[in-house]
User: What shape does this take?
Amino acid sequence: MSRIERSLTSLEAEALSSPEKAFNLTDGHPRQPLTASQRVITDTIPAMFDEALDRPFADVERCAHAAFYGCTGQLKAPIGAGRILSTYSSTIALDIVARVLAERISEVAVLHPTFDNIADLFRARGLRLQPISEQQIDTGSWHPPANVGAVVVVTPNNPTGWILRRESLRRLATACARSGQVLVMDASFRGQDPRAHYDTYQTMQETGVEWVVVEDTGKLWSISELKAGFLSWSAGSTLRFVKAFDEVMLSVSPVILLLIAKMAADARARGFDEMHSGLEANRSLVATILADTPMELTDPDSRISVARVTLPADGPDAHDTYCALVQHGIHTLPCSRFYWARPADGDRQLRLSLSRPAVTVERAARALAKIYQPVRRQAAVSR
Amino acid sequence: MSRIERSLTSLEAEALSSPEKAFNLTDGHPRQPLTASQRVITDTIPAMFDEALDRPFADVERCAHAAFYGCTGQLKAPIGAGRILSTYSSTIALDIVARVLAERISEVAVLHPTFDNIADLFRARGLRLQPISEQQIDTGSWHPPANVGAVVVVTPNNPTGWILRRESLRRLATACARSGQVLVMDASFRGQDPRAHYDTYQTMQETGVEWVVVEDTGKLWSISELKAGFLSWSAGSTLRFVKAFDEVMLSVSPVILLLIAKMAADARARGFDEMHSGLEANRSLVATILADTPMELTDPDSRISVARVTLPADGPDAHDTYCALVQHGIHTLPCSRFYWARPADGDRQLRLSLSRPAVTVERAARALAKIYQPVRRQAAVSR
Assistant: This one.
């Protein structure tokens, strides 16, 4: 398969299926030991099976929503209003969004770069895409064209860590409201960056825009992919979310919802602080190791669980660097596919996961540093 | 919404969201207390989080596959051959099947009646459907027409409990192989009926047919929807399963896979016997309570976790009976939508779940019996 054809998830899946000694730094999912207080929570899972049978599902679900939206300050989310669906994952939620949008519109504007899977899901439902950049949104230089029926933003963005700030959201939502476009927000990485914890629901509701938001518990806690995606929408939207949801699933596990409620309460008390400092330590570790090389962090200000590294123009590109690291049993992601409209723009960036034990991150960063040492020596010799 | 427009899952979701005192007998998912040996297993879940981090994912997944396919005698399933995908659920697996089939063909034959969601998923991917009946398959009177690119069977069938027997499977697979049609099998209820435990993979492989099978752990154990769907296919198939899978998910939870492996081992030792006798006892309970009414079990020979009840022609139909039971806080399913091509064929059948505590099943059956007593008295008076 060509470089461009392989999706990022397919590279992540390959890393996941690799043999014992492989180091998987491909995906943004947390894969590290539980903290002490998280372990106290997972120890209560056996008792949750009875609780899940005894309590009405709607009650269990509402408590999970209240705890989860609450722990990131999303107080105006429509909890208990019948406009939040709990799905297996944020991807399943986004697929439902793509499906119902395709019943109404034919073209969407999608953030560029962002995880390729988002563009793929919308394309698979027959929608035409046009790219918009973080800068266009920040500067307000972009106005939704008439042929675009929806705008899809990702905040914090993956892989850049960019945040849609409150004023930019207000401006974008107001523009969408004025021209009748749906504003779709994927906030899957929200928990990782406190700068994204202002109440986006309140901001959107104040503009009158028709909005759809996907949230995700799966990037926050290392609990073996026991997670949910939450899909909510503005009052009065005629998009057929419930019908599309009913077609793919009946419900998530009540035990997972009970677990999410407890993890969210712990996040609020101490878990987010622990996560943020852990990610920051691993990001600094990478920066320190790369300081002595021609590479650097692409997004030093990012707070999310992945870090892009900018590779020098005169060495191997991202794909060759990725292949060289795989030879050492280390799996990362070349960034070309994040630039779903112009893949070449990502040919000099590599993405590393930071939600890993520090020793794993260090090993990957050192292996990466070594690849570029010969290049520098050669450059010195030929100078 | 009209009677026909509401999907079965939407009725199941309504029951799930009902308040505390409601009795939910809508879905075939198990909702009853754990057995003693299942409780021993769920008590080990906290330790699984470390195991899931320590062991390679591919190893955890292969063990789950071996245990699960093994416990129903599916020894020739392609375990370790790279042709089994673990999905969040059987529905997600079926949606992948529908999606990849739509890339190659435009019309499929689908079993009728069966759960409406199956037809809906194939339609949603743009495929045209034609119905085939259990009887047509049993008698061999149906031959795949040239315009049909795939045949979709469900065994054991939901709601009838019908089993595709080995000789019928061989004949159907041979016919499909001869005319180049894909044979799709949904075996989600397989564990519930030992008559479906002959090795269907071996039988299909002997005919040379291009096959796709969906299995499901979600109907077997009352572990709060912690489940997986497994999607496998014949060697050499060019359908793009992996690409479609990568687009919707990265992996199921390793903890869920570890749990499935243990539950499957327990099923083999004693769990299936316990489940089969529990379902049989609840089915007999319904039959006994209805013996004194003009109603009867539609499928007395069925072994699966739901039972259809045939309503008398001179009383309220299934939809009105469903509504009357909801007034008593009891949720069931009218069967019209199972007949996805001719809904009126199911207007005199109601489906009850049997994977419930006996007291719940008894309460529902008694409420149902009461609805028809006035009718009988009236009939006696007017005679």
